[in-house]
Design brief:
alpha/beta, 6-stranded mixed sheet, Rossmann fold, 3-stranded antiparallel sheet
Length: 244
Protein backbone atom coordinates (compact mmCIF):
# COMPACT_ATOMS: atom_id res chain seq x y z
CA UNK A 1 0.00 0.00 0.00
CA UNK A 2 1.06 3.58 -0.63
CA UNK A 3 0.08 7.11 0.27
CA UNK A 4 0.69 8.13 -3.35
CA UNK A 5 -2.75 8.80 -4.83
CA UNK A 6 -2.00 6.90 -8.04
CA UNK A 7 -2.34 3.17 -8.75
CA UNK A 8 0.36 0.89 -10.12
CA UNK A 9 -0.09 -2.78 -11.01
CA UNK A 10 2.76 -4.91 -12.31
CA UNK A 11 2.78 -8.57 -13.32
CA UNK A 12 -0.62 -9.44 -11.86
CA UNK A 13 -1.73 -12.96 -12.76
CA UNK A 14 -4.90 -14.54 -11.39
CA UNK A 15 -5.95 -18.05 -12.36
CA UNK A 16 -8.98 -20.11 -11.32
CA UNK A 17 -8.48 -23.73 -12.28
CA UNK A 18 -7.58 -23.76 -15.97
CA UNK A 19 -8.98 -20.27 -16.49
CA UNK A 20 -6.35 -17.52 -16.41
CA UNK A 21 -8.38 -14.32 -16.08
CA UNK A 22 -5.45 -11.93 -15.57
CA UNK A 23 -2.18 -12.64 -17.35
CA UNK A 24 0.87 -10.67 -16.16
CA UNK A 25 -1.30 -7.55 -16.20
CA UNK A 26 0.33 -4.12 -16.06
CA UNK A 27 -1.68 -0.93 -15.56
CA UNK A 28 -1.16 2.56 -14.15
CA UNK A 29 -3.83 5.02 -13.00
CA UNK A 30 -2.86 8.66 -12.58
CA UNK A 31 -3.64 10.39 -9.27
CA UNK A 32 -7.15 11.83 -9.33
CA UNK A 33 -8.03 10.16 -12.65
CA UNK A 34 -11.53 8.90 -13.45
CA UNK A 35 -11.06 5.62 -15.34
CA UNK A 36 -13.62 3.12 -16.66
CA UNK A 37 -12.87 -0.58 -17.09
CA UNK A 38 -14.73 -2.54 -19.75
CA UNK A 39 -14.48 -6.15 -20.85
CA UNK A 40 -16.56 -9.12 -21.82
CA UNK A 41 -18.12 -11.28 -19.11
CA UNK A 42 -15.42 -13.26 -17.33
CA UNK A 43 -12.62 -11.01 -18.58
CA UNK A 44 -11.36 -10.31 -15.05
CA UNK A 45 -12.77 -6.83 -14.39
CA UNK A 46 -14.14 -7.60 -10.94
CA UNK A 47 -11.11 -9.77 -10.12
CA UNK A 48 -8.86 -6.76 -10.75
CA UNK A 49 -11.10 -4.47 -8.71
CA UNK A 50 -11.22 -6.88 -5.77
CA UNK A 51 -7.43 -7.18 -5.84
CA UNK A 52 -7.02 -3.40 -5.81
CA UNK A 53 -9.48 -3.21 -2.92
CA UNK A 54 -7.51 -5.80 -0.94
CA UNK A 55 -10.51 -8.14 -0.86
CA UNK A 56 -8.49 -10.78 -2.73
CA UNK A 57 -4.84 -11.34 -1.89
CA UNK A 58 -2.39 -10.53 -4.67
CA UNK A 59 0.13 -13.19 -5.73
CA UNK A 60 3.55 -12.82 -4.17
CA UNK A 61 5.25 -12.04 -7.49
CA UNK A 62 2.84 -9.21 -8.36
CA UNK A 63 3.58 -5.58 -7.49
CA UNK A 64 0.44 -3.73 -6.38
CA UNK A 65 0.71 -0.12 -5.22
CA UNK A 66 -2.55 1.57 -4.25
CA UNK A 67 -3.29 4.60 -2.09
CA UNK A 68 -5.02 4.37 1.27
CA UNK A 69 -7.70 4.61 2.35
CA UNK A 70 -9.63 2.73 -0.33
CA UNK A 71 -13.41 2.41 -0.57
CA UNK A 72 -15.64 0.20 -2.72
CA UNK A 73 -19.23 0.61 -3.92
CA UNK A 74 -20.78 -2.60 -5.27
CA UNK A 75 -23.77 -3.21 -7.54
CA UNK A 76 -25.84 -4.12 -4.46
CA UNK A 77 -25.91 -1.45 -1.72
CA UNK A 78 -25.16 -4.11 0.94
CA UNK A 79 -26.80 -2.13 3.75
CA UNK A 80 -27.43 -3.92 7.04
CA UNK A 81 -31.23 -3.98 7.42
CA UNK A 82 -31.14 -3.91 11.24
CA UNK A 83 -29.19 -0.63 11.40
CA UNK A 84 -30.55 2.82 10.46
CA UNK A 85 -29.00 4.55 7.47
CA UNK A 86 -26.56 6.72 9.44
CA UNK A 87 -25.19 3.69 11.31
CA UNK A 88 -24.67 1.87 8.01
CA UNK A 89 -22.70 4.84 6.72
CA UNK A 90 -20.62 5.12 9.90
CA UNK A 91 -19.96 1.38 10.16
CA UNK A 92 -16.39 0.76 11.28
CA UNK A 93 -15.46 4.44 11.59
CA UNK A 94 -12.89 5.22 14.26
CA UNK A 95 -14.34 8.59 15.20
CA UNK A 96 -15.57 10.00 18.53
CA UNK A 97 -18.65 11.38 16.78
CA UNK A 98 -19.53 8.95 13.97
CA UNK A 99 -23.06 10.34 13.56
CA UNK A 100 -21.66 13.77 12.71
CA UNK A 101 -19.41 12.27 10.02
CA UNK A 102 -22.25 10.15 8.63
CA UNK A 103 -24.60 13.14 8.57
CA UNK A 104 -22.09 15.18 6.56
CA UNK A 105 -21.60 12.37 4.03
CA UNK A 106 -25.34 11.77 3.69
CA UNK A 107 -25.84 15.49 3.16
CA UNK A 108 -23.44 15.36 0.21
CA UNK A 109 -25.52 12.66 -1.50
CA UNK A 110 -28.85 14.34 -0.72
CA UNK A 111 -30.00 12.01 2.05
CA UNK A 112 -29.97 14.27 5.12
CA UNK A 113 -33.68 13.58 5.57
CA UNK A 114 -33.09 9.79 5.73
CA UNK A 115 -30.52 9.65 8.56
CA UNK A 116 -32.68 7.53 10.84
CA UNK A 117 -34.56 5.62 8.13
CA UNK A 118 -34.34 1.83 7.91
CA UNK A 119 -32.66 0.50 4.75
CA UNK A 120 -35.78 -1.42 3.79
CA UNK A 121 -37.69 1.84 3.33
CA UNK A 122 -35.21 3.29 0.81
CA UNK A 123 -35.73 3.31 -2.94
CA UNK A 124 -33.07 1.68 -5.11
CA UNK A 125 -31.50 5.05 -5.87
CA UNK A 126 -31.55 6.11 -2.22
CA UNK A 127 -29.94 2.85 -1.12
CA UNK A 128 -27.15 3.27 -3.64
CA UNK A 129 -26.61 6.88 -2.55
CA UNK A 130 -26.32 5.63 1.03
CA UNK A 131 -23.72 3.10 -0.15
CA UNK A 132 -21.85 5.92 -1.86
CA UNK A 133 -21.97 8.00 1.34
CA UNK A 134 -20.56 5.01 3.25
CA UNK A 135 -17.60 5.01 0.85
CA UNK A 136 -17.08 8.77 0.91
CA UNK A 137 -17.21 9.08 4.70
CA UNK A 138 -13.83 7.33 4.76
CA UNK A 139 -12.33 10.09 2.59
CA UNK A 140 -10.81 7.56 0.19
CA UNK A 141 -7.90 8.34 -2.07
CA UNK A 142 -9.00 5.42 -4.24
CA UNK A 143 -12.70 4.91 -5.01
CA UNK A 144 -13.64 1.62 -6.68
CA UNK A 145 -17.09 1.28 -8.26
CA UNK A 146 -18.21 -2.22 -9.31
CA UNK A 147 -21.17 -1.72 -11.68
CA UNK A 148 -22.89 0.44 -9.05
CA UNK A 149 -25.72 1.64 -11.31
CA UNK A 150 -26.54 -1.57 -13.20
CA UNK A 151 -29.71 -2.31 -11.21
CA UNK A 152 -31.12 1.23 -11.44
CA UNK A 153 -33.69 2.53 -13.89
CA UNK A 154 -32.46 4.83 -16.66
CA UNK A 155 -33.57 8.11 -15.05
CA UNK A 156 -32.10 7.25 -11.64
CA UNK A 157 -28.89 6.14 -13.33
CA UNK A 158 -28.56 9.52 -15.05
CA UNK A 159 -29.00 11.30 -11.72
CA UNK A 160 -26.38 9.05 -10.11
CA UNK A 161 -23.93 9.81 -12.91
CA UNK A 162 -24.24 13.51 -12.15
CA UNK A 163 -23.88 12.91 -8.42
CA UNK A 164 -20.76 10.77 -8.78
CA UNK A 165 -19.12 13.34 -11.05
CA UNK A 166 -19.91 16.13 -8.58
CA UNK A 167 -18.44 14.13 -5.71
CA UNK A 168 -15.36 13.22 -7.76
CA UNK A 169 -14.75 16.89 -8.58
CA UNK A 170 -15.14 17.83 -4.90
CA UNK A 171 -12.99 15.09 -3.34
CA UNK A 172 -10.69 14.17 -6.26
CA UNK A 173 -10.10 10.48 -5.44
CA UNK A 174 -8.53 8.30 -8.08
CA UNK A 175 -11.65 6.53 -9.35
CA UNK A 176 -12.08 3.25 -11.22
CA UNK A 177 -15.54 2.16 -12.37
CA UNK A 178 -16.18 -1.34 -13.70
CA UNK A 179 -19.08 -1.32 -16.14
CA UNK A 180 -20.58 -3.23 -19.09
CA UNK A 181 -22.09 -0.02 -20.45
CA UNK A 182 -19.98 1.70 -23.12
CA UNK A 183 -22.06 4.87 -22.99
CA UNK A 184 -21.70 5.04 -19.21
CA UNK A 185 -17.94 4.70 -19.53
CA UNK A 186 -17.77 7.56 -22.05
CA UNK A 187 -20.11 9.80 -20.06
CA UNK A 188 -18.14 9.44 -16.83
CA UNK A 189 -14.50 8.63 -17.46
CA UNK A 190 -11.57 10.49 -18.99
CA UNK A 191 -9.88 7.20 -19.83
CA UNK A 192 -11.41 3.86 -20.78
CA UNK A 193 -9.55 0.54 -20.51
CA UNK A 194 -10.70 -2.69 -22.15
CA UNK A 195 -9.59 -6.02 -20.69
CA UNK A 196 -9.05 -8.85 -23.16
CA UNK A 197 -7.25 -12.17 -22.60
CA UNK A 198 -6.10 -11.01 -19.18
CA UNK A 199 -4.41 -7.80 -20.31
CA UNK A 200 -5.29 -4.23 -21.23
CA UNK A 201 -6.07 -4.48 -24.95
CA UNK A 202 -7.40 -0.93 -25.41
CA UNK A 203 -6.45 2.26 -23.59
CA UNK A 204 -8.64 5.11 -24.85
CA UNK A 205 -8.41 8.73 -23.78
CA UNK A 206 -11.76 10.55 -23.84
CA UNK A 207 -11.08 14.09 -24.92
CA UNK A 208 -14.62 15.48 -24.58
CA UNK A 209 -15.54 18.33 -22.26
CA UNK A 210 -18.18 17.81 -19.58
CA UNK A 211 -21.13 17.70 -19.40
CA UNK A 212 -21.12 15.06 -22.13
CA UNK A 213 -23.92 14.27 -24.53
CA UNK A 214 -24.21 11.10 -26.66
CA UNK A 215 -25.34 13.32 -29.54
CA UNK A 216 -21.96 15.09 -29.51
CA UNK A 217 -20.22 14.41 -32.88
CA UNK A 218 -17.16 13.09 -31.04
CA UNK A 219 -19.16 10.53 -29.05
CA UNK A 220 -20.08 8.16 -31.90
CA UNK A 221 -16.54 7.34 -33.11
CA UNK A 222 -15.33 6.66 -29.56
CA UNK A 223 -18.36 4.47 -28.91
CA UNK A 224 -17.78 2.51 -32.12
CA UNK A 225 -14.11 1.99 -31.28
CA UNK A 226 -14.93 0.61 -27.82
CA UNK A 227 -17.68 -1.64 -29.19
CA UNK A 228 -15.25 -3.06 -31.75
CA UNK A 229 -12.76 -3.68 -28.94
CA UNK A 230 -15.51 -5.66 -27.21
CA UNK A 231 -16.22 -7.68 -30.36
CA UNK A 232 -19.31 -5.78 -31.47
CA UNK A 233 -19.34 -4.62 -35.08
CA UNK A 234 -21.88 -1.93 -35.90
CA UNK A 235 -23.70 -2.22 -39.23
CA UNK A 236 -22.59 0.25 -41.84
CA UNK A 237 -24.95 3.18 -42.30
CA UNK A 238 -27.17 2.77 -45.33
CA UNK A 239 -27.19 5.50 -47.94
CA UNK A 240 -30.70 6.06 -49.24
CA UNK A 241 -31.03 6.73 -52.95
CA UNK A 242 -33.22 9.72 -53.81
CA UNK A 243 -36.60 8.70 -55.10
CA UNK A 244 -37.35 9.32 -58.74
Amino acid sequence: MSNNAGVSVRNLTRQFGENRVLDALDVELEPGAFVALLGRSGSGKTTLLRTLAGLDAAPADAQIDVPTPTAVVFQEPRLLPWKPVWQNVALGLADPNPRRRAEAALGEVGLSHRLDAWPGTLSGGEAQRAALARALVRQPKLLLLDEPFAALDALTRMKMHGLVLDLWRTHAPTTLIVTHDVDEALLLADRVLVLEHGRIATDLRVGMDRPRDPTNPGFGPLRAKLLRALGVELPAARVLEPSA
